[in-house]
Structure formats: structure tokens, C-alpha cells
Design brief:
Number of helices: 15
Shape: globular
Largest sheet: 7 strands, mixed
Amino acid sequence: KLLVGFDRPAFALASASPLDVMAGTRRALLQGVVVALAAASAEAGLPTSCEAAVVGGGWAGVYSAYRLASMGHKVCLFEATERIGGRTYSKTFDVGRPGEQFTLDVGAYRFSPDMHLPGDVILKVLKLPVACYEPSCPDAGTDFVKPFQFNYSAPLVRIVDTSGNPAGYVTAIEGLVGEIRVMGGSVFLDAKLTDVTLLPGGANAGVSLAFGDQGSVTAKMVLLNLPRPALRALPSLRASTPARAQQAQDCIKFDLPGDMFPPGQTMSLGRSLVKAYAFYEDAWWHTKLNRTVGQWPANAFLPTNTSEGIPIGIHFNDGPVHCDAPLKGCRGFLEVFYATAEEHLFEDVPTSWNDPLGVLRAKDDTKHQLQKLHAAVMEATAPLWAAATLEPPRAAPTMLVVGVWSRLGKGYTAPTKVYYSNSQSQPGGPDPLEKACGVKGLTEDEYRSTVLAPILGDARVLVANNDWVAQQTEKLFGDWAEESLLQAERGMRKLGLERPEWLNQTYYEAKVAAYQPLGPVRATELVV
């Protein structure tokens, strides 16, 4: 069941329509564009100047480059690695039957159409097919188990291929990259930013971007789609940032008030945010338990500890599964962990913090980790086997795929936001934003404005990334790129760009215009 370009309350359902077919083939085309672009960029080297520059190939960076290019600007997009997507990381595996492929998202992966950024980009601009993340298409608010909440009601969805299988969240970002190229923009991979300097002469003088021994690039303005560690590592930009703004940038907090959790329970923050999938040649949750939806335990983000020392939290319908017939001849990936709990088996699979993806195949499993994982999964699900009066399967998974996002500031990081709480149950007492960050009088409005344009509001340098969020812990929800995209759109408004006609007006007024009054335009040469 595919959902294509729908708006609430009536969903437009389609199956194998021409649009579906085009969307299904679009991903392969755009991946080819990205690969060709990487080769071309490496051969050509960096330019000496750009009209507008964007640094960082995550959602906010690619979106900003697309918005500027769509208004006629010559845009350069620079990405430090060989991969577009940032914390959106989709990987396709040739596993299972000959010729079969399974796509996993080890980073961001779903959205609500009410979340018009990125929803309107995916459904209206790129017209990609999507399907409900939960097969019953429940209200997004009920999809979130306590203590978490969600700000939207339209069912959570994910991008799918023409067969209804997950196609990867990065499909949308790759789609925007293709559009940028069509509009004359340039994308440069393996271009790591090392510094940003404001050129003398005032707000219209431009900026200089240093890329180590690759040289420097001048631009009229730059948007930095950078996480906290990368932004703070730019020495000249840091020196130009007022002390109060630096304090806001340095603030990381994750309050966990006691009244958010049942008695005796809390959430372990661990060293990283980890997502893990095990591939089973026999998808027993389908073929034996008939568990094709739901979580185990009830809130899989608070996983079950096992005697193997491996915490397990299962989401039965998250991973892709292929079946010969319903509940028969099935093989596929089972999400066995998605949490911040302290653990080591999953964290140790990637070889470097600089690449969050880790893959362990049976042929390389010299320490028998897959068998240990299987034992932990069977222990965690023992009540299900007992209730079904069935013997648990003995065959271990043949592959483990993980995404490990550091919370220690190393390599690719999980979002390091400011989650504060005014609750009396917060250990140490209420922790309002100004206390949490040690910045007297700091408000969410000031924080939002400061991190967007950190150099006294100078629009030559704008910042947008999922790290730069301050909100009460009690309002924590999975935004899957929305916050960074809102920051990017507020930056576009600051530069004088109006609401794109495809973006929901009510949403724009409430989430963009209300938070970022237009005021005086600093970069007048960028106004169309």
C-alpha cells in the first residue's frame, strides 16, 4: 500500500501508478548523479569563489542549497565526506535470495506529513511514494509511547519503493542534490571546512572559507550545516563570535526529570545513540510468532537487559522483510536495538567514529558475536515463545548492521541538544534554560536567534543543524530533520527569500515567520 503526495484528512492511495514507477526509478538515477558528481568534483578541485556557499550535506545543507539555487543563485555545496546525507544514512544490502536487496536506515528514517518540513519537500517537490511506518496507520501522537510525545497527528510514514519496501530516507536528499545540479549548482565531496573568516568591509563584503590544503573559497554568504563539534572547531569564526553566543553554542544538557518515567525506571544516556538490525534467513517473527507489528518490550527505546550483557529492544515492523507468501518463506532484518543505553557489542562493530555504519557478517565473526546476539534476543523474547508454546529457533542471524552515533563529540555525533526541565522532580531541582546553560536570562527565543546568526545577527554566516535546539525535556520528540530544516528556512527568510509556494502557509507562518521576523536584510545582493 503506497501513499503518494497526500494531505490530511483524506489520503490519496495509489498502487503501481505511473508516479510510483517514476519515483521508484528516480532513486537509482539520482544515486548515479551523486557518484558521477563525486568523481567530477575530485577531478576539478574546489572553485575560488561562489555566489552563495553551503557547508554540510545533511538535510539542512542540501535543502538550503536547493532553496538558493531555485531562486537563481549560483550555489556551491561542500561536504566533508564521500557521502551525502549527514545523520540520514541509508544503505542497501545484497542479502537473502539471489538478486534480492534490502535497504536500511541507520539514522533518520520517518516523518509525519503534518511535519511540512520535510513532508512537503518529499511529497510535493519530489513526489516520492511513501507508506505508513506502522501498518495500521495510527495517529502519530499515539505511535509514541510514554514518556515521549509527538507534535503531529498524521500517521508517520517512510519513503518506499514501488513494491512498498523501504527505499531509504536519503532518497529525498539525493533527489534535492539532483535538482541542485539541474539548476546549475555545484556539489563538492571530500571538502572539509577548517575555518571561516568574515572579510573586512561590512555586511556585504562576504566570507572566506578555508578547506585546509585544498585552498580557500570566497562567497557572499555561507550557511553552515554543521554539528556542534565541527562548528566550534573553526578558530576565526569562534573568535568573531560574542562570548554570550559562545556560551549558548557550548551548552549541552539532557535533563531527565523523575516524573517522566514509571517508579524505578529512567533512561540511560550511554556513550552513543545506536540502531542495530540482525538479518535472519528465517524471519521467525513472521513465520513462527506471527509478530509483524509492534515492539518488545512495550517501549523498545527502554530495552530489556539480558544475561549476555546485550540490551534488546525490538520493533518488529521496522526492518524490511521479504516473504514468498504472507508469513511463509520469509527472510529479512529485525531491529533489535534503537536506544542510548550503555552497551558494547553494537558500538564495537564500526571500525571508526568517523563512519557510523558498521557491518558484521557471519564469515567475519571470529568472536561469535552473532551467536551471542541471538542468545540475547531469544532470552528477551522468551515470554513470547512460552505464550506460543513453541521452541525458539537455534539459527543465529547471518549479518548485523548498526549505526553508531557518538554522544562524546567524536566523528559523527548524535544530536547534542539542550533538553532542560523545570520540573521539581529533576535531580537537583528545577533546571530552567538559563541555569542549564549558565547564561543569565537566556530564553528559547534568544537561543534560537543566536545560534542561527551567531555573529551579532550578521547574515553572512548562518547556522542550521539538529544540534542547535533548546527545549524542555518533557516536549522531547523525534523530529527526524524538522528542526534543522526550520532553522534553514528561517535563514532563507533572513536573507529575504519568501515562502516557497509548495510549503504549507499555516505551517510557515507558525514555525518560521513567527520565530524569525524578517527585519533589515543584511545580504541585499542575495534578495531576488
